[in-house]
Amino acid sequence: MKYKHIVISQFGGPENLLLVEDDLREPGPNEVRVKALSAGVSFADILMRQGVHPESWNLGRTPFTPGWDIVGVVDKLGNKVSSWHIGQIVTALPVVGGYSEYIFMSSNDLVAVPIGLDPADVVSLVLNYVTAYQMLHRCAHIKSGESILINGGAAGGVGTALLQLGKLVNLDKMFGTASAEKHGIVSDLGGIPIDYKSVDLDQEIIKLTSHNDNEPGVDAVFDGIGGKSFKSSYEILRSGGRLVAYGGTPTADLGDWLMMFTMNVVSDKKKFILYSIQTLKRLNPAWFHEDLVLLLDLLKQGKIKPIIGAKMPLDDAAKAHELLANGSVKGKIVLICND
Ligand SMILES: NC(=O)c1ccc[n+]([C@@H]2O[C@H](COP(=O)([O-])OP(=O)(O)OC[C@H]3O[C@@H](n4cnc5c(N)ncnc54)[C@H](OP(=O)(O)O)[C@@H]3O)[C@@H](O)[C@H]2O)c1
């Protein structure tokens, strides 16, 4: 039997995303073959395609099939797998391999999906919401009544997840930078949008937080931009504040990261934390599992609702990358891998 998947033929632009057909193999003894329903398209996929993401360095070669997160149906079990059954709906963070009709996963890497959830909603939780949840709760240890800033992409995938999850904690204020045309998304989710293109961010935050007895500034910043923005994100923290850095390109940001670590060492009042979902998952897989299960429950209860910008067929992966890169789709782009 044949199956279709996307491969990145060489590092570079979206034209290197090719649809290919291969023979479908049997699962190995500890593997589960999953028939994919949906795969998320993320900024991290674009960085992988360009060969500038640490995971693409780990891989160190092309061709490979991109795709960080998937939802699918258990299709066939390896002969040593007893923890899953055929037909069960599952989700996972494979990091590579998601843009495919079928994917092979270690049985330990799957998480069961409650019945009745839309696969597009579920796949949107795996990378973006786990990232947002772990940054809020495992890195910044955010508390009710605190104020946060999402610096970069507050209307984007991780940004909207931060806003929805931040609202559940009853934060005092949630500021978020976004392009002016996306401000409605930020305010609809309870955030205070800031147009980073027309104001000085540091001065704006000081102005917006200076009206009461509190020290001006915010208690936590989630920085999805990296580079030069680290410094201003750090400066607008109150004492006791936490800066969680999660975006940017490692090659471009090396000097700025080193500077932040140095500042972190010399300051006992503020903390700089570098977050990576895949590193934390490797160090502590139980947390990833626990947090995703909690998020699936919040989705089931209707307490969170991912914003889906577009659902596209697997064949349109290159177009999906172009749309994501030019910012023209508001919300998560999801590939439909099998009808
Ligand atoms: N560390 C981790 O484990 C982890 C996990 C998930 C994602 N990420 C990273 O997080 C970042 C955001 O991911 P995402 O999926 O949320 O992306 P996204 O939905 O595409 O949001 C990115 C948005 O950021 C804004 N932006 C881009 N450049 C900017 C700049 N120089 N200054 C201010 N805003 C800028 C743009 O929004 P506007 O049009 O509103 O300006 C853009 O649409 C990416 O770098 C991704 O690789 C990291």
Q: Which architecture of the largest domain would the CATH scheme give at its second level?
A: Alpha-Beta Complex
Number of helices: 11
Give the SSE string: EEEHHEEEEHEHEHEHEHEHEHHEHE
Helix content: 25-40%
Distance between the termini: 17 Å
Number of strands: 15
Radius of gyration: 20 Å
**CATH domain class of the largest domain:** Alpha Beta
Structural category is: alpha/beta
Work out the oligomeric state of the chains in this entry.
single chain
How many structurally independent domains? 2
Shape: globular
Strand content: 25-35%
Q: What ranges have pLDDT less than 50 throughout 5 or more consecutive residues?
A: none
> What is the average per-residue confidence, as pLDDT, rounded to a whole number?
93
Which ions, cofactors or small ligands are bound in this entry?
A: NADP nicotinamide-adenine-dinucleotide phosphate
Q: Under CATH, the topology of the largest domain is which?
A: Quinone Oxidoreductase, Chain A, domain 1
The CATH homologous superfamily name of the largest domain equals Medium-chain alcohol dehydrogenases, catalytic domain
Please give a structural write-up.
The chain has 2 domains: 2-125 and 306-336, Medium-chain alcohol dehydrogenases, catalytic domain (Quinone Oxidoreductase, Chain A, domain 1, Alpha-Beta Complex); 144-275, Rossmann fold, CATH 3.40.50.720. The relative contact order is 0.15. The chain contains 11 helices and 15 strands. The strands form 3 sheets. Strands 3, 4, 5, 6, 7, 14 and 15 form a 7-stranded mixed sheet that branches. The longest helix has 21 residues, at 119-139. It is of the alpha/beta class. α3 crosses α4 and α3 (119-139) packs across α10 (285-300). The model has no long low-confidence stretch (mean pLDDT 93). 35% of the residues lie in helices and 26% in strands. The chain starts with a strand and ends with a strand. β1 and β2 (17-23) form a beta hairpin. It binds NADP nicotinamide-adenine-dinucleotide phosphate.
